[in-house]
């Protein structure tokens, strides 16, 4: 992808010098979400559905690393080459490299349509850095959605995943097959199996999740931002459950703000 490419998330995938396509319409109150959950639980699939409904931009750190991996060797920084090595083995990329990449793209957090962070933050250090960055940028998270699924189902989802090399749409060989085998329904791009979906890498990824990422559930619960959703069932059912819970949460917050402002009015503040 050249730096002049315009897609709806060019600035995220290529870096701040790339331009995104203009939004078709401006969302009145943008959604600013974080998706949590083990590898393969379906975060990317849900992020895509949420993007289609809410227009918020799908910001996946894994996609940035993969996009960089598909560039020529001489276009990759030493830190990015290291990151790709960690990724292939299933290990987490060091916080300093991930943070450098996200900080460089902080403009994406101001996207008029909002954002859906997928795969970031993944450690307590990353979560704290994000909180600080949001504060510095005068932004707030709307909610953090945690998807939950038993490990046996997660392994089956990862083993059958296929991804479009062009538009990154995600399929599953039995659960979400493309209309034509091996080709993307949306752009006819070639579908490939990710290197880190091999059994030995899956094991490392699940261990890294338990050790480093699962503690974020508590972190966001304490901040009052957590929304728990079961990842069992069809992608559409899970999406409906997510959207219903998010809407209810937003309505509750709006009603609470209105009530507090009436209280202030009554007490003459
Ligand atoms: P990343 O790309 O973020 O991968 P991940 O978190 O491991 O998550 P996945 O993309 O594997 O799964 P998903 O939950 O999005 O599931 P999906 O929707 O695809 O990270 C990759 C690597 O990059 C990391 O291991 C690490 O090395 C590095 N990295 C990235 N960010 C980092 C960070 N912040 N810090 C450190 N390192 C970082 O679905 C999976 C399959 O299931 C698909 O085939 C799909 O079609 C299918 N499926 C989805 N939903 C359903 C359903 N409801 N029913 C049946 N099948 C379904």
Give a written overview of the molecule:
With 269 residues, the chain is of the alpha/beta class. Helices cover 46% and strands 13% of the residues. It has helices spanning 10-14, 43-54, 61-69, 78-89, 95-104, 124-136, 151-159, 199-213, 215-222, 235-266; strands spanning 31-36, 57-60, 114-118, 143-148, 161-164, 170-172, 191-192, 226-230. The protein has a five-stranded parallel beta sheet with strand order 2-3-1-4-8, sandwiched between helices. It has a three-stranded antiparallel beta sheet with strand order 6-5-7. A hairpin with a 5-residue loop joins strand 5 and strand 6 (170-172). It is globular, with a radius of gyration of 19 Å. The model has no long low-confidence stretch (mean pLDDT 90). Bound molecules: BIS(adenosine)-5'-pentaphosphate. Residues 37, 39-45, 60-62, 65, 86-87, 90-93, 98, 119-120, 122, 126, 157-158, 160-161, 170-172, 175-176, 196, 205, 234-235, 238 line the site of BIS(adenosine)-5'-pentaphosphate.
Describe the structure using short key phrases.
269 residues, alpha/beta, five-stranded parallel sheet, three-stranded antiparallel sheet, 10 helices, 8 strands, globular, binds BIS(adenosine)-5'-pentaphosphate
């Amino acid at each position: 992808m050249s730096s002049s490419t315009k897609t709806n998330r060019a600035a995220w995938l290529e870096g701040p010098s790339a331009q995104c396509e203009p939004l078709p319409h401006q969302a009145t109150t943008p959604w600013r979400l974080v998706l949590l959950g083990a590898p393969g639980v379906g975060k990317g699939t849900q992020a895509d559905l949420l993007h289609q409904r809410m227009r918020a931009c799908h910001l996946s750190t894994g996609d940035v690393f993969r996009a960089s991996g598909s560039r020529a060797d001489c276009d990759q920084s030493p830190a990015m080459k290291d990151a790709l090595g960690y990724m292939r083995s299933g290990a987490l990329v060091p916080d300093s490299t991930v943070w450098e990449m996200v900080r460089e793209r902080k403009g994406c957090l101001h996207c008029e349509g909002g954002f859906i962070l997928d795969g970031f933050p993944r450690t307590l250090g990353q979560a704290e850095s994000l909180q600080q960055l949001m504060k510095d940028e005068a932004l707030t998270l709307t909610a953090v959605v945690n998807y939950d699924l038993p490990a046996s189902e997660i392994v089956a989802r990862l083993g059958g995943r296929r991804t479009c090399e062009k538009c990154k749409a995600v399929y599953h060989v039995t659960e979400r097959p493309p209309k034509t085998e091996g080709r993307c329904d949306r752009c006819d791009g070639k579908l490939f199996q990710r290197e880190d979906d091999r059994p030995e890498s899956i094991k490392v990824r699940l261990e890294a999740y338990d050790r480093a990422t699962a503690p974020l559930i508590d972190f966001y619960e304490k901040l009052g931002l957590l929304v728990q959703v079961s990842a069992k069932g069809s992608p559409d059912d899970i999406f409906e459950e997510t959207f219903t819970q998010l809407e209810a949460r937003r309505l509750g917050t709006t009603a609470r703000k209105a009530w507090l402002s009436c209280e202030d009015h009554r007490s003459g503040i």
